[in-house]
Specification:
Elements (H helix, E strand, L loop, with lengths): L6 E6 L5 H13 L4 E6 L8 H9 L14 H6 L2 E4 L13 E4 L10 H20 L8
Parallel strand pairs: 1-2, 1-3, 3-4
């Protein structure tokens, strides 16, 4: 059985802040219509407590997440890869759509500082969900 829904992969450096925010929001907004993955080039040991708290304010529980290392296999699973920082060295298999959202690194931010970033990512995610391609493996 093949995946009949598009797969989104959100990538940042540490898979602790930006990509976790985007993945949580995409999973909420996309529901069972999408598969959502996230990864980092140099993953931290744990997801940012501030990012988790920000998502919790939006009704999203990602406390079970562990930062994941980006692999060629993860990229190959994706229909859309969203780099959350310009200049990331990512594999580019044929047929995968790429976007770059240049976002600041919220690593040292507090909850008040991260809310506007969360809301901005939420708007970008909602727009992305309206433009999704058909899955390559359907």
């Amino acid at each position: 059985m093949t995946n009949a829904k598009p797969t989104l992969l959100f990538v940042c450096v540490h898979n602790a802040g930006r990509s976790q925010l985007a993945a949580g929001l995409a999973a909420l907004r996309g529901g069972d219509q999408v598969t959502v993955l996230s990864a980092g080039l140099d993953p931290d040991e744990k997801v940012s407590e501030v990012a988790l708290a920000s998502l919790a304010e939006a009704g999203i529980d990602r406390s079970d997440q562990t930062p994941t290392k980006l692999t060629d296999d993860l990229v190959a699973q994706a229909d859309v890869v969203v780099a959350l920082k310009p200049g990331l060295d990512l594999p580019h298999p044929e047929g995968v759509r790429y976007e770059t959202w240049p976002l600041p690194d919220p690593a040292e931010w507090d909850i008040d500082g991260i809310r506007p970033l969360r809301d901005y990512i939420d708007a970008k995610v909602q727009q992305l969900l309206t433009e999704l391609p058909q899955p390559r493996r359907a």
